[in-house]
Design brief:
Layout (H helix, E strand, L loop, with lengths): L1 E6 L9 E7 L6 E2 L4 E6 L4 E5 L4 E6 L6 E3 L3 E7 L8 H4 L79 H10 L17 H11 L23 H16 L2 E9 L1 H18 L4 H13 L7 E4 L4 E4 L5 E3 L1 E2 L4 E2 L2 E2 L7 H17 L12 E5 L18 E5 L3 E7 L2 E15 L5 H16 L8
Parallel strand pairs: 12-16, 16-17
Antiparallel strand pairs: 1-8, 2-4, 2-7, 3-6, 4-5, 6-8, 9-19, 10-11, 12-15, 13-14, 17-19, 18-19
Helix pairs in contact: 6-7, 6-8
Length: about 450
Protein backbone atom coordinates (compact mmCIF):
# COMPACT_ATOMS: atom_id res chain seq x y z
CA UNK A 1 0.00 0.00 0.00
CA UNK A 2 1.17 3.53 -0.69
CA UNK A 3 0.16 7.14 -0.17
CA UNK A 4 -1.22 9.25 -2.99
CA UNK A 5 -1.35 13.00 -2.32
CA UNK A 6 -3.84 15.04 -4.34
CA UNK A 7 -2.85 18.68 -4.61
CA UNK A 8 -5.06 21.66 -5.27
CA UNK A 9 -5.21 21.79 -9.06
CA UNK A 10 -4.63 24.85 -11.21
CA UNK A 11 -8.18 25.92 -12.10
CA UNK A 12 -6.96 28.45 -14.66
CA UNK A 13 -7.61 32.16 -15.23
CA UNK A 14 -4.52 33.03 -13.19
CA UNK A 15 -6.13 31.94 -9.91
CA UNK A 16 -3.51 31.47 -7.18
CA UNK A 17 -5.74 30.51 -4.27
CA UNK A 18 -9.24 29.19 -3.65
CA UNK A 19 -11.55 28.76 -0.68
CA UNK A 20 -12.46 25.29 0.52
CA UNK A 21 -16.24 25.36 0.88
CA UNK A 22 -17.21 21.72 1.33
CA UNK A 23 -15.95 18.17 1.74
CA UNK A 24 -17.74 15.24 0.14
CA UNK A 25 -15.65 12.69 2.03
CA UNK A 26 -14.22 12.15 5.50
CA UNK A 27 -11.27 10.28 6.94
CA UNK A 28 -11.77 6.55 6.52
CA UNK A 29 -14.01 6.77 3.45
CA UNK A 30 -13.20 4.74 0.36
CA UNK A 31 -13.35 6.79 -2.82
CA UNK A 32 -13.67 5.73 -6.43
CA UNK A 33 -11.98 7.26 -9.44
CA UNK A 34 -13.68 10.53 -10.51
CA UNK A 35 -15.69 10.63 -7.28
CA UNK A 36 -16.08 14.24 -6.01
CA UNK A 37 -13.80 14.95 -3.06
CA UNK A 38 -14.31 18.63 -2.28
CA UNK A 39 -15.83 21.88 -3.50
CA UNK A 40 -13.65 24.96 -3.81
CA UNK A 41 -14.71 28.47 -4.67
CA UNK A 42 -12.94 30.95 -6.91
CA UNK A 43 -13.95 34.57 -7.42
CA UNK A 44 -16.46 33.43 -10.03
CA UNK A 45 -17.83 29.99 -9.31
CA UNK A 46 -17.68 26.81 -7.26
CA UNK A 47 -15.54 24.02 -8.72
CA UNK A 48 -15.81 20.34 -7.82
CA UNK A 49 -12.49 18.51 -7.33
CA UNK A 50 -12.68 14.79 -8.31
CA UNK A 51 -10.36 11.97 -7.29
CA UNK A 52 -8.00 10.74 -10.03
CA UNK A 53 -7.46 7.40 -8.24
CA UNK A 54 -9.16 4.76 -6.12
CA UNK A 55 -8.19 4.79 -2.46
CA UNK A 56 -9.05 5.34 1.20
CA UNK A 57 -8.98 8.79 2.80
CA UNK A 58 -6.28 9.03 5.47
CA UNK A 59 -6.06 12.82 5.93
CA UNK A 60 -7.81 16.00 4.84
CA UNK A 61 -5.69 19.00 3.95
CA UNK A 62 -7.90 21.80 5.22
CA UNK A 63 -11.05 22.91 6.97
CA UNK A 64 -14.19 24.33 5.43
CA UNK A 65 -13.71 28.08 5.02
CA UNK A 66 -9.93 27.83 4.70
CA UNK A 67 -8.20 29.61 1.82
CA UNK A 68 -5.77 27.24 0.11
CA UNK A 69 -3.02 27.94 -2.41
CA UNK A 70 -3.03 26.24 -5.79
CA UNK A 71 -0.52 23.38 -5.55
CA UNK A 72 -1.08 22.92 -1.81
CA UNK A 73 -1.98 19.52 -0.40
CA UNK A 74 -5.73 18.89 -0.56
CA UNK A 75 -6.11 15.28 0.57
CA UNK A 76 -4.16 12.06 1.20
CA UNK A 77 -5.34 8.67 0.03
CA UNK A 78 -4.05 5.21 0.80
CA UNK A 79 -3.85 3.38 -2.53
CA UNK A 80 -2.73 0.06 -3.93
CA UNK A 81 0.90 0.11 -5.03
CA UNK A 82 3.52 2.73 -4.26
CA UNK A 83 1.44 5.87 -4.59
CA UNK A 84 3.10 9.15 -5.51
CA UNK A 85 4.79 9.97 -2.18
CA UNK A 86 7.65 8.08 -0.60
CA UNK A 87 9.73 8.18 2.53
CA UNK A 88 9.14 10.68 5.31
CA UNK A 89 6.76 12.73 3.18
CA UNK A 90 4.37 9.80 3.03
CA UNK A 91 4.35 9.56 6.81
CA UNK A 92 3.60 13.25 7.35
CA UNK A 93 0.00 14.22 6.71
CA UNK A 94 -0.88 17.91 6.25
CA UNK A 95 -0.82 20.01 9.42
CA UNK A 96 -4.60 20.45 9.43
CA UNK A 97 -5.07 16.70 9.68
CA UNK A 98 -2.30 15.34 11.90
CA UNK A 99 -4.46 13.77 14.59
CA UNK A 100 -6.84 10.86 14.47
CA UNK A 101 -10.33 11.54 13.16
CA UNK A 102 -13.05 12.49 15.62
CA UNK A 103 -15.48 9.73 16.57
CA UNK A 104 -18.18 9.31 13.97
CA UNK A 105 -20.86 9.30 16.66
CA UNK A 106 -20.16 12.95 17.49
CA UNK A 107 -22.09 14.21 14.45
CA UNK A 108 -25.26 13.16 12.65
CA UNK A 109 -24.73 10.84 9.72
CA UNK A 110 -26.39 13.33 7.39
CA UNK A 111 -23.44 15.69 7.84
CA UNK A 112 -20.92 13.30 6.34
CA UNK A 113 -22.13 14.11 2.84
CA UNK A 114 -23.38 17.62 2.03
CA UNK A 115 -26.71 17.92 0.25
CA UNK A 116 -26.50 18.27 -3.51
CA UNK A 117 -27.69 21.85 -3.37
CA UNK A 118 -24.67 22.76 -1.21
CA UNK A 119 -22.25 21.75 -3.95
CA UNK A 120 -22.83 24.97 -5.82
CA UNK A 121 -23.01 28.68 -5.23
CA UNK A 122 -26.77 28.76 -5.63
CA UNK A 123 -27.29 26.12 -3.07
CA UNK A 124 -25.16 28.05 -0.59
CA UNK A 125 -21.85 27.23 0.99
CA UNK A 126 -21.51 23.94 2.76
CA UNK A 127 -20.64 25.86 5.90
CA UNK A 128 -22.43 23.54 8.28
CA UNK A 129 -20.25 20.52 7.63
CA UNK A 130 -19.35 19.31 11.09
CA UNK A 131 -15.84 19.57 12.52
CA UNK A 132 -15.93 15.80 12.87
CA UNK A 133 -15.25 15.50 9.16
CA UNK A 134 -11.76 16.80 10.00
CA UNK A 135 -9.30 15.09 12.34
CA UNK A 136 -9.80 16.05 15.95
CA UNK A 137 -6.85 18.49 16.07
CA UNK A 138 -8.32 20.59 13.29
CA UNK A 139 -10.53 22.60 15.65
CA UNK A 140 -10.41 23.45 19.37
CA UNK A 141 -12.53 21.29 21.61
CA UNK A 142 -15.51 22.94 23.25
CA UNK A 143 -15.70 22.81 27.05
CA UNK A 144 -17.46 19.69 28.17
CA UNK A 145 -20.94 20.11 29.65
CA UNK A 146 -21.75 19.06 33.22
CA UNK A 147 -22.61 15.41 33.43
CA UNK A 148 -25.98 16.12 35.05
CA UNK A 149 -27.10 18.32 32.19
CA UNK A 150 -29.12 16.63 29.41
CA UNK A 151 -27.55 16.46 25.95
CA UNK A 152 -30.17 18.81 24.51
CA UNK A 153 -28.90 21.63 26.73
CA UNK A 154 -25.53 21.49 25.01
CA UNK A 155 -27.10 22.38 21.69
CA UNK A 156 -27.33 25.97 20.51
CA UNK A 157 -31.05 26.81 20.82
CA UNK A 158 -30.92 29.35 18.01
CA UNK A 159 -29.53 26.73 15.64
CA UNK A 160 -31.99 23.98 16.61
CA UNK A 161 -33.94 24.19 13.34
CA UNK A 162 -34.14 26.16 10.13
CA UNK A 163 -36.12 29.45 9.95
CA UNK A 164 -39.77 28.77 9.29
CA UNK A 165 -39.54 25.13 10.35
CA UNK A 166 -42.26 24.36 12.92
CA UNK A 167 -41.19 22.42 16.00
CA UNK A 168 -42.87 19.12 16.80
CA UNK A 169 -44.28 18.83 20.33
CA UNK A 170 -47.23 17.38 22.20
CA UNK A 171 -50.03 19.66 23.46
CA UNK A 172 -48.77 19.22 27.02
CA UNK A 173 -45.25 20.29 26.08
CA UNK A 174 -46.61 23.27 24.14
CA UNK A 175 -48.73 24.41 27.10
CA UNK A 176 -45.82 24.08 29.50
CA UNK A 177 -43.56 26.03 27.14
CA UNK A 178 -46.23 28.76 26.90
CA UNK A 179 -46.54 28.96 30.68
CA UNK A 180 -42.75 29.20 31.02
CA UNK A 181 -42.42 31.88 28.34
CA UNK A 182 -40.33 29.66 26.03
CA UNK A 183 -40.53 29.83 22.25
CA UNK A 184 -40.40 26.23 21.07
CA UNK A 185 -38.63 27.08 17.83
CA UNK A 186 -35.49 27.82 19.87
CA UNK A 187 -35.55 24.52 21.76
CA UNK A 188 -33.57 21.59 20.45
CA UNK A 189 -35.77 18.50 20.16
CA UNK A 190 -34.24 15.18 21.19
CA UNK A 191 -37.30 13.04 20.44
CA UNK A 192 -38.18 11.16 17.25
CA UNK A 193 -38.01 13.41 14.16
CA UNK A 194 -36.77 16.27 16.39
CA UNK A 195 -39.84 16.27 18.65
CA UNK A 196 -39.47 18.55 21.68
CA UNK A 197 -39.84 16.62 24.94
CA UNK A 198 -40.32 17.79 28.54
CA UNK A 199 -36.67 17.05 29.26
CA UNK A 200 -35.71 19.33 26.37
CA UNK A 201 -37.57 22.16 28.09
CA UNK A 202 -35.69 21.35 31.31
CA UNK A 203 -32.40 21.41 29.39
CA UNK A 204 -33.29 24.73 27.79
CA UNK A 205 -34.09 26.23 31.19
CA UNK A 206 -30.76 25.04 32.55
CA UNK A 207 -28.89 26.42 29.59
CA UNK A 208 -30.70 29.73 29.12
CA UNK A 209 -32.50 30.49 32.35
CA UNK A 210 -36.28 30.82 32.59
CA UNK A 211 -37.96 34.19 32.52
CA UNK A 212 -41.69 34.04 32.99
CA UNK A 213 -43.77 37.11 32.35
CA UNK A 214 -47.42 38.05 32.47
CA UNK A 215 -47.03 39.53 29.00
CA UNK A 216 -46.64 36.07 27.46
CA UNK A 217 -43.84 34.17 25.69
CA UNK A 218 -43.35 36.81 22.99
CA UNK A 219 -41.84 39.07 25.69
CA UNK A 220 -39.62 36.46 27.30
CA UNK A 221 -36.02 37.52 27.78
CA UNK A 222 -33.52 35.90 25.43
CA UNK A 223 -29.76 35.71 25.90
CA UNK A 224 -28.75 33.18 23.24
CA UNK A 225 -26.02 33.98 20.73
CA UNK A 226 -24.94 32.39 17.49
CA UNK A 227 -21.62 32.76 15.68
CA UNK A 228 -22.00 32.37 11.90
CA UNK A 229 -18.73 32.00 9.97
CA UNK A 230 -18.52 34.19 6.88
CA UNK A 231 -17.26 31.68 4.34
CA UNK A 232 -17.83 30.56 0.79
CA UNK A 233 -20.24 32.61 -1.31
CA UNK A 234 -21.08 34.92 1.59
CA UNK A 235 -17.37 35.74 1.99
CA UNK A 236 -17.06 36.42 -1.75
CA UNK A 237 -20.06 38.73 -1.63
CA UNK A 238 -18.58 40.59 1.35
CA UNK A 239 -15.23 40.98 -0.38
CA UNK A 240 -16.82 42.10 -3.65
CA UNK A 241 -19.06 44.68 -2.00
CA UNK A 242 -16.23 46.04 0.15
CA UNK A 243 -13.95 46.29 -2.88
CA UNK A 244 -16.62 48.08 -4.91
CA UNK A 245 -17.33 50.64 -2.19
CA UNK A 246 -13.63 51.11 -1.37
CA UNK A 247 -12.51 51.60 -4.96
CA UNK A 248 -15.46 53.30 -6.63
CA UNK A 249 -16.72 56.79 -5.75
CA UNK A 250 -20.42 56.06 -6.16
CA UNK A 251 -23.09 58.59 -6.90
CA UNK A 252 -26.75 57.69 -7.27
CA UNK A 253 -29.43 59.21 -9.46
CA UNK A 254 -33.15 58.54 -8.96
CA UNK A 255 -35.86 59.27 -11.51
CA UNK A 256 -39.61 58.61 -11.46
CA UNK A 257 -41.04 56.90 -14.53
CA UNK A 258 -44.66 56.57 -15.59
CA UNK A 259 -44.95 52.96 -16.71
CA UNK A 260 -48.72 52.91 -17.29
CA UNK A 261 -48.44 52.47 -21.06
CA UNK A 262 -45.54 50.09 -20.67
CA UNK A 263 -47.54 47.85 -18.35
CA UNK A 264 -50.53 47.99 -20.69
CA UNK A 265 -48.29 46.95 -23.57
CA UNK A 266 -46.77 44.14 -21.54
CA UNK A 267 -50.24 42.84 -20.58
CA UNK A 268 -51.33 42.93 -24.24
CA UNK A 269 -48.21 41.10 -25.44
CA UNK A 270 -48.61 38.45 -22.76
CA UNK A 271 -52.28 37.96 -23.64
CA UNK A 272 -51.47 37.52 -27.30
CA UNK A 273 -48.10 35.73 -27.23
CA UNK A 274 -47.78 34.43 -23.67
CA UNK A 275 -48.60 30.82 -24.47
CA UNK A 276 -46.54 30.61 -27.64
CA UNK A 277 -43.53 32.77 -26.76
CA UNK A 278 -43.57 32.98 -22.99
CA UNK A 279 -44.55 35.65 -20.50
CA UNK A 280 -42.74 38.99 -20.38
CA UNK A 281 -41.72 40.66 -17.14
CA UNK A 282 -40.55 44.25 -16.83
CA UNK A 283 -36.85 43.32 -17.05
CA UNK A 284 -36.69 42.51 -20.80
CA UNK A 285 -38.38 45.82 -21.59
CA UNK A 286 -35.93 47.69 -19.36
CA UNK A 287 -32.99 45.81 -20.86
CA UNK A 288 -34.13 46.72 -24.37
CA UNK A 289 -34.42 50.39 -23.38
CA UNK A 290 -30.91 50.30 -21.93
CA UNK A 291 -29.50 48.71 -25.09
CA UNK A 292 -30.94 51.52 -27.20
CA UNK A 293 -29.91 54.30 -24.79
CA UNK A 294 -26.35 53.02 -24.44
CA UNK A 295 -25.72 53.65 -28.13
CA UNK A 296 -25.49 57.35 -27.25
CA UNK A 297 -23.68 56.82 -23.92
CA UNK A 298 -20.87 54.32 -24.59
CA UNK A 299 -18.93 55.56 -21.55
CA UNK A 300 -21.56 53.88 -19.33
CA UNK A 301 -21.31 50.48 -21.04
CA UNK A 302 -17.74 50.12 -19.84
CA UNK A 303 -15.32 48.64 -17.33
CA UNK A 304 -12.64 50.63 -15.51
CA UNK A 305 -9.25 49.11 -14.71
CA UNK A 306 -8.17 51.55 -12.03
CA UNK A 307 -4.78 49.89 -11.59
CA UNK A 308 -3.91 50.32 -15.27
CA UNK A 309 -5.77 53.64 -15.47
CA UNK A 310 -7.77 52.50 -18.47
CA UNK A 311 -11.45 52.50 -19.38
CA UNK A 312 -12.64 49.87 -21.87
CA UNK A 313 -15.86 50.74 -23.70
CA UNK A 314 -17.79 47.86 -25.21
CA UNK A 315 -19.94 47.68 -28.30
CA UNK A 316 -21.50 44.47 -27.03
CA UNK A 317 -23.98 44.92 -24.20
CA UNK A 318 -23.49 42.12 -21.69
CA UNK A 319 -26.08 42.79 -18.99
CA UNK A 320 -25.60 41.35 -15.52
CA UNK A 321 -28.87 40.33 -13.88
CA UNK A 322 -28.53 40.48 -10.09
CA UNK A 323 -30.18 37.28 -8.86
CA UNK A 324 -30.90 36.15 -5.33
CA UNK A 325 -30.13 32.51 -4.55
CA UNK A 326 -30.32 30.48 -1.35
CA UNK A 327 -26.62 31.13 -0.84
CA UNK A 328 -26.67 34.84 -1.58
CA UNK A 329 -26.60 37.38 -4.39
CA UNK A 330 -25.08 36.37 -7.72
CA UNK A 331 -24.89 38.15 -11.09
CA UNK A 332 -25.30 35.89 -14.14
CA UNK A 333 -24.72 37.57 -17.48
CA UNK A 334 -27.08 37.92 -20.44
CA UNK A 335 -24.59 38.18 -23.28
CA UNK A 336 -25.11 40.26 -26.40
CA UNK A 337 -28.37 41.79 -25.29
CA UNK A 338 -28.13 44.05 -28.36
CA UNK A 339 -28.93 41.04 -30.59
CA UNK A 340 -31.99 39.82 -28.66
CA UNK A 341 -35.68 40.60 -28.96
CA UNK A 342 -37.93 40.83 -25.89
CA UNK A 343 -38.81 37.13 -25.78
CA UNK A 344 -35.22 36.03 -26.28
CA UNK A 345 -34.22 38.28 -23.38
CA UNK A 346 -37.03 36.94 -21.21
CA UNK A 347 -36.06 33.34 -21.95
CA UNK A 348 -32.38 34.00 -21.24
CA UNK A 349 -33.08 35.86 -18.00
CA UNK A 350 -35.29 32.97 -16.86
CA UNK A 351 -32.66 30.40 -17.84
CA UNK A 352 -29.89 32.23 -16.01
CA UNK A 353 -32.00 32.68 -12.87
CA UNK A 354 -32.85 28.98 -12.88
CA UNK A 355 -29.20 28.02 -13.38
CA UNK A 356 -28.11 30.20 -10.46
CA UNK A 357 -30.80 28.86 -8.12
CA UNK A 358 -30.12 25.27 -9.17
CA UNK A 359 -26.37 25.74 -8.79
CA UNK A 360 -25.54 24.85 -12.38
CA UNK A 361 -24.32 28.25 -13.59
CA UNK A 362 -20.80 28.05 -14.98
CA UNK A 363 -17.95 30.53 -14.68
CA UNK A 364 -18.58 31.92 -18.16
CA UNK A 365 -22.18 32.65 -17.17
CA UNK A 366 -21.10 34.54 -14.05
CA UNK A 367 -18.48 36.87 -15.52
CA UNK A 368 -17.98 39.44 -18.24
CA UNK A 369 -20.92 41.80 -17.67
CA UNK A 370 -20.55 45.41 -18.85
CA UNK A 371 -23.52 46.91 -16.94
CA UNK A 372 -25.93 45.44 -14.40
CA UNK A 373 -29.65 45.52 -13.62
CA UNK A 374 -30.76 44.92 -10.04
CA UNK A 375 -34.34 44.48 -8.89
CA UNK A 376 -36.07 43.39 -5.71
CA UNK A 377 -39.36 42.85 -7.51
CA UNK A 378 -42.41 43.67 -5.37
CA UNK A 379 -40.05 44.35 -2.43
CA UNK A 380 -38.23 47.02 -4.43
CA UNK A 381 -39.12 49.87 -2.11
CA UNK A 382 -39.30 53.49 -3.20
CA UNK A 383 -35.59 54.30 -3.51
CA UNK A 384 -32.42 52.22 -3.32
CA UNK A 385 -28.71 53.01 -3.68
CA UNK A 386 -27.33 49.97 -5.53
CA UNK A 387 -23.64 49.08 -5.30
CA UNK A 388 -21.80 49.00 -8.62
CA UNK A 389 -20.63 45.58 -9.77
CA UNK A 390 -16.88 46.26 -9.93
CA UNK A 391 -15.19 46.86 -12.38
CA UNK A 392 -18.29 48.13 -14.21
CA UNK A 393 -19.15 51.82 -14.02
CA UNK A 394 -22.96 51.72 -13.84
CA UNK A 395 -25.86 49.79 -12.35
CA UNK A 396 -29.59 50.38 -12.88
CA UNK A 397 -31.95 49.54 -10.02
CA UNK A 398 -35.67 48.87 -10.39
CA UNK A 399 -38.03 49.91 -7.61
CA UNK A 400 -41.61 48.89 -6.90
CA UNK A 401 -44.45 49.97 -9.23
CA UNK A 402 -47.04 51.96 -7.29
CA UNK A 403 -50.38 53.25 -8.55
CA UNK A 404 -50.76 56.88 -7.47
CA UNK A 405 -52.79 59.94 -8.50
CA UNK A 406 -51.06 62.14 -11.08
CA UNK A 407 -51.98 65.18 -13.15
CA UNK A 408 -52.59 64.55 -16.85
CA UNK A 409 -53.99 67.36 -19.04
CA UNK A 410 -55.26 69.18 -15.99
CA UNK A 411 -57.09 66.17 -14.56
CA UNK A 412 -56.15 63.91 -11.69
CA UNK A 413 -55.85 60.32 -12.92
CA UNK A 414 -54.49 57.06 -11.59
CA UNK A 415 -51.06 56.22 -13.03
CA UNK A 416 -48.54 53.45 -12.46
CA UNK A 417 -45.30 55.03 -11.32
CA UNK A 418 -41.89 53.52 -10.65
CA UNK A 419 -38.49 54.87 -9.67
CA UNK A 420 -35.23 53.88 -11.29
CA UNK A 421 -32.45 54.12 -8.70
CA UNK A 422 -29.10 53.95 -10.45
CA UNK A 423 -25.48 54.31 -9.35
CA UNK A 424 -22.45 55.35 -11.39
CA UNK A 425 -18.67 55.57 -11.04
CA UNK A 426 -17.94 59.29 -10.79
CA UNK A 427 -14.38 58.78 -12.01
CA UNK A 428 -15.71 57.71 -15.40
CA UNK A 429 -19.30 58.98 -15.65
CA UNK A 430 -20.16 62.65 -15.15
CA UNK A 431 -23.39 63.47 -13.37
CA UNK A 432 -24.83 65.16 -16.44
CA UNK A 433 -24.17 62.10 -18.62
CA UNK A 434 -25.74 59.79 -16.04
CA UNK A 435 -28.85 61.99 -15.87
CA UNK A 436 -29.14 62.12 -19.66
CA UNK A 437 -28.75 58.36 -19.92
CA UNK A 438 -31.54 57.71 -17.40
CA UNK A 439 -33.73 60.33 -19.10
CA UNK A 440 -33.20 58.49 -22.41
CA UNK A 441 -34.25 55.23 -20.76
CA UNK A 442 -37.24 57.01 -19.25
CA UNK A 443 -38.39 58.34 -22.63
CA UNK A 444 -38.24 54.86 -24.13
CA UNK A 445 -40.20 53.28 -21.28
CA UNK A 446 -42.85 56.00 -21.15
CA UNK A 447 -43.37 55.75 -24.91
CA UNK A 448 -42.80 52.01 -25.38
CA UNK A 449 -43.51 52.09 -29.11
CA UNK A 450 -40.04 53.63 -29.45
CA UNK A 451 -38.55 50.31 -28.28
CA UNK A 452 -39.50 48.85 -31.65
CA UNK A 453 -38.49 51.78 -33.89
CA UNK A 454 -35.10 51.57 -35.57
Amino acid sequence: MGIHVIKMPDIGEGIAEVELVGWHVKVGDTVAEDQPLADVMTDKATVEIPSPVVGRVVALGGEVGQVMAVGGELIRLEVEGEGNVKGEAAAQPPQAATAAPAPAASAPAAESTPAKADKTPAGGVAGQIAASLQPAAAAPQAPSAPASRPAAARQSPAAARQPGEKPLASPAVRKRAWDLGIELRYVHGSGPAGRVMHEDLDAYLQGQGAVTTARGPAYAERNDEEQVPVIGLRRKIAQKMAESKRRIPHFSYVEEIDVTELEDLRASLNAKFGESRGKLTLLPLLARAMVIALRDFPQINARYDDEAGQVTRYGAVHIGIATQSDGGLMVPVMRHAETRDLWSMAAEIGRLAQAVRAGSAGRDELSGSTITITSLGPLGGIVTTPVINHPEVGIVGVNRIVERPAFRNGAVVARKLMNLSSSFDHRVVDGMDAARFIQAVRALLEQPALLFVE
